[in-house]
Structure formats: C-alpha cells, structure tokens
Amino acid sequence: MSLRRILLAVVAVGILVVLGGFALMWRPAIAPVATSAKSQTDRKAIDHGAELASIGNCADCHTSPNGAAYAGGRPIPTPFGTIYASNLTPDGETGIGSWSEEAFKRAMRDGVDREGRQLYPAFPYDHFTHTTDADIHAIYAFLMSKPAVRNAVPANELAFPFSFRPIVAGWKLLFLNRNALEPDSSKSAEWNRGRYLVEGLGHCGSCHTPRNALGGEKKGSAYAGGVAEGWNAPPLNASLVTAHKWTVDQLAEYLSTGWHRLHGAAAGPMADVAKNLGRASQADVHAIATYIASLSPGAEGAKAAVPAGGKVMKDQSAEVVAIYNGACAKCHNDRLDVGPSQAISLAYSTAVQQPESANTVRVVMHGIEAYRTDGGPYMPAFEGILTDKQIASVVQYVRARYTDRPQWTDVNSQIAKARQEGAQP
Amino acid sequence: MKVSLHVNGKTEEVDVADSSTPLLYVLRDNLKLRGPRFGCGLGQCGACMVHIDGRATFSCVLPVTAVGDRKVTTLEGLMEGGKPNKLQQAFIDEEAAQCGYCISGMVMQAQALLNKTPNPTDEEIRRHMEPNLCRCGTHVAIMRAIKRAAVA
Questions:
Q1: How far is A160 from A143, CA to CA, in rounded Å?
Q2: Is CB count within 10 Å lower at the N or C end of chain B?
Q3: Are A35 and A134 within one domain?
C-alpha cells in the first residue's frame, strides 16, 4: 500500500472512531416542562436542598458579582478559556425553568443539558455524579423554589477545539466515573457520610487535587494540593505542612466559620466555601471534617515547632523590623490575643508554612474582606500601603521568624502575579 | 531618628523615637495635621485615610519609615487657595456628617475615586467606599455629596 493509502485509512478509521464515540455519548433532548416557584410546595425538600446547595457551593460560581443569587453569569477562568456559569433560577428562557427533574438529574450525573448538549466540566459533574436521587430531588426543589430571574448569560470564550462541545464527550470517557461510592463498612457512618459529601457534592478535589494537561483530576495524587484562581489549594492529605496537625473538631470549626485560632482564616476562594458551609447542616460539616482528617492520618495535638512569639531574630535590617512592627504586629501581636481582626500568631498560620508563597502574598496584598458583613477574620489590603519591595521583604521576614522552613524563592513572581490578577470580586 | 516626608507639597523633617511609629501619629502629633483621625488603629475603619501617591491608604498601619519618597496628601492638602475644594464643599453643602469622625477618611477615599473616575456610577461609588465605616449611618448623604461633586 502506498503511504497515501495508509494515511487515508488512518484518517477514515479516526473519523469512524470519533463518530462512533459521538453515537455512544449522544444524548437526546428532554422535553421542556413549565415549572414555577409555586409548583414547589415540599418545604422539607426545599430546606434540605438549600443546605445541600450550600455544601455544593453552587451559589459561589452561579452568582455574578452584585448579581441575583443563582442567576449565573460569573466568568470562570480556566486554562482553556473563560466559561460563564449558567443561570440556575427557574426562568423559562434564560434559566432552567423548562428543565424537568429528570433533565436536572442528567446534568448532575452525566454533564448534559436539557437540550442534550455536552456541559463543560468547570461544572464539576465528575463529583456531582455521586449524588443520590433523594439529594438531587431536594436540590432541584430548592432551585425551583427560587424567584425566576431573567438573565441571559454571555457565550463562553473558548478557543478551538475547546469551543466544540462534543469533544467533552471524549473527556468524560477518560475522567467521568459514574460508579456509585460503595459505603465502606469498616468505617463509621459519619466517615461514610463525609466521604459521600467530599467526593460528591462538596467537590473538594476540584481545587485540592492537581489536574493533568487535559484538565482531569490526577486520581493517583488525590488531595495532593492544586490551584484555585491564583491561590494554592493546600493538600488535604498527609503531605500538608502545618504548625498544628488538624483535628476533626478544628476542621469542623474552620469549615463552618472560616477561621481557627491554631490555623488561620479561609481566604481567597475558600472564604466563600466556608461562608456557605456555615449555612449547611453542622452534622454534615462535622462529617466532612471527619473524612478530611482521615486523609492525613497521624498523631493529633503536636505542638508548633516555633512558639507563638516567633524566633529571636538577629541581623535583620532595621527597615523590615519597622515594617513588621508597624504594619503587621498591630494585630498579629504574638500574645494569643487575636483581637477584633481575629489575627492569629503567624507561627500558627498554615499559609506561612506552605512551600509556595502565593497565599501569604495574596493575603498581604489583597487583605481579607470576605467576612466584613458577616463578622469574622479581617485584614486590610497592604497593596498600596507598602511597596512591592517592602511586601517582599516583610513576607520573607515572617517566613524566617515564624517557621523552620527555607526561605521562599517565588515571592517576587507571586507579587507580580497577584498585582496583575488583582483581588477577586 | 530623623525622617524626611513629602506632605501636602512640602518636605518635612520629623523626629521619631520609634521607627515603627505609624504615619498617622506623625501627621497628627508632629505636623499638627488633624484631618486624619485615629479610629481603630487596625486598618479596619478608614478614619485615618490619607493619599499615598494619590491612592487612599490607611495611615495607621503604615510605619513612617516605610513611606520613603512617596507623596502624602491629607485632608488639609485638598484645600484650594485656603478654601474647601469641590468635594469638601459638597460634603458641607449636603451636611454629609453626623458625628463627623469618619468624614475626613470618607473625603480622602472619595477624592481618590473622583481623580480616577470623574463621573462614577452609584455602584462604583458604593464599591469604592466599602473600606470606610460610618457608625452614624450617614451613607446616603455621603453618596449625595460625592455625586454632587462629580457633576458640579
């Protein structure tokens, strides 16, 4: 056979495989229905659905800054382009008001919309697929009970070939595992409940598990840490470095209030997660904490390597000491008296312990504003108060004084990146 | 120790005992500029706001030795020919103060916005003014004052 014929054959087989794949993954449209908030009368299901939606952190992505809750439109940056979160309110035209519960369930489980189009996995159906029928029913009842908001969401901005939705079918063959989580009878009911929520609705791995070049979670490195909107999502497994090992109760408090005095504040994208978990069933939050704590087995209650007041520092420039004392120590006062800003000793901060400086740099530059109206930890944004050079020097000073870990090597690039990307809305 | 500062267009030499002394204390105590106020001392409320190179900044968490050659402007520095500037006059005309403690910071924050965006929307004003707290609830009058200065 000539080379030309071989090439033609390869192309033909390729096309057949692709077509076959599409046929295999093709899903029909599900007939539209007329839904209205009035049709939802099951108060128990609605309330339960609201709590579950909080665990799923649905409102965070599906609400644009200053927009109506669940009305969509928030731009979600991905390595492949920008995806706009859809409108989940029961508006017939721009929302999901014409979706039957069956259509909603298919979206959650298979990542296909009512019309049969592939949904991008920025919507974490690779986790939601584990959600039970009863829980999907409750979330559906809750969403349909919301006021319908007319809000046409902008079209996604994705480069070819990612703009071609059917390729998502191929992604699913690789990364969507629809098998239900079988309960592990050797573990407690609470652990199993926690695993169900963490692996499913909570979709913790979406940020805390590293992703491969195709955007799939690296299953072999589950919970080894990932990235989220420029922040490091620290590992949830034994590779996490902290001053104090997390206990279940500490995790539960942190997850539902966004703060723990021995660890620090949930900042960046985690702040919204914590604010939503504060509205969830606290029994469920405790179950989540139980499962997450089990990912890093080991002795609890070890003392921090560096005391709350930090190490005695020698040979530091007077300039950086003045900055630390005048800017940081006003609140981080080393006396375990956290004060109105809930500023912990930096010897206890998880962010300061991390191998990369991203989270410390971002907290220093952009502050913590997320809890302003609810009450909780606060930090002013030092971008503008201090120069980039001063921020770099004080961040390294904190690392040296409050940890036993090596100096960061990425501070200048993280400052430049944080400045370019700006504070998250 | 001696520290040199650029404040309201002048170069000032001040003597401070502690290098971590906040800029706010030096402005009020050494330079007798009483526009910026001490509110919380924690960068929470905004009563101490001044402009550093044109940007509204908490002066209570800025050590005076870290200012360097950046230019400091206080409420006094906004005056034009010994009279309140357009924004300051708008605050007076709208009576946008009750106890008045936050107002210096509010004016500085609002001026920084108007310098960048001469005609801001309500939404832009609200978002920009978020760091500044007012316990009296004068926000509606403050909004009016900023909009008055914007269109005047």
A1: 33
A2: C
A3: yes
Distance (Å, whole) CA B44 – CA A378: 8
Q: Does A389 touch chain B (CB under 8 A)?
A: no
Residue intervals in chain B for CATH 1.10.150.120 = 86-151
- Is some CB atom of chain A closer than 8 A to the CB atom of B64? yes
Q: Residue A140: which of A85, A58, A64 has the closest Cα? A: A58
- Put simply, the answer to whether A380 touches B43 (Cβ < 8 Å) is yes
Among A163, A178, A211, residue at a domain's last position: A163
Beta-bridge partners for B7 = B10, B72
Give the tens place of pLDDT for each residue, A204-252: 999 999 999 999 999 899 999 999 989 999 999 999 999 999 999 999 9
Do A329 and A274 sit in the same domain of this protein? no
Domain B2-77 has CATH 3.40.50.2000: no
A-contacting residues in B 76-135 (Cβ below 8 Å): 123, 130-131
Domain boundary among A113, A129, A163: A163
Q: How many Cβ pairs within 8 Å bridge chains A and B?
A: 73
What the block records as the tokens of A336 is 């375990």
- SS3 string, A107-144, reads HHHHCECCCCCECCCCCCHHHHCCCCHHHHHHHHHHHH
A288: CATH: 1.10.760
Find residue A386's DSSP bridge partners: A383
A285 vs A256: CA distance, rounded Å: 7
Q: Which fold has domain B86-151?
A: DNA polymerase; domain 1 (1.10.150)
Q: Indicate whether A251 belongs to any domain.
A: yes
User: Strands B10-15, B55-58: parallel, antiparallel or unpaired by DSSP?
Assistant: unpaired
Q: Domain for residue A368, yes or no?
A: yes
Whether residue A289 lies inside any domain: the answer is: yes
B chain contacts of residue A329, beta-carbon cutoff 8 Å: 20
The answer to whether the peptide bond before residue A235 is cis (omega within 30 degrees of 0) is no
Closest CA relative to residue B149, chosen from B111, B103, B104: B111
A158 touches chain B (CB under 8 A): no
Strand B49-52 vs strand A81-84: parallel, antiparallel, or unpaired? Answer: unpaired
Which domain range does residue A115 map to? 28-163
Closest CA–CA distance from residue B99 to any residue of chain A (Å)? 22
Residues 51-70 of A with CB under 8 A from B: 66
Are A153 and A253 in the same domain? no
HSE-CB at A409 with a 13 A cutoff on CA atoms is: 1
In a domain, A52, yes or no: yes
Q: Is A406 on the interface with B (CB under 8 A)?
A: no
- pLDDT-based confidence at A333, cuts 50/70/90? confident
Nearest CB partner across the interface for A323, out of B63, B123, B131? B63
* CA pair distance A283, A270, nearest whole angstrom: 20
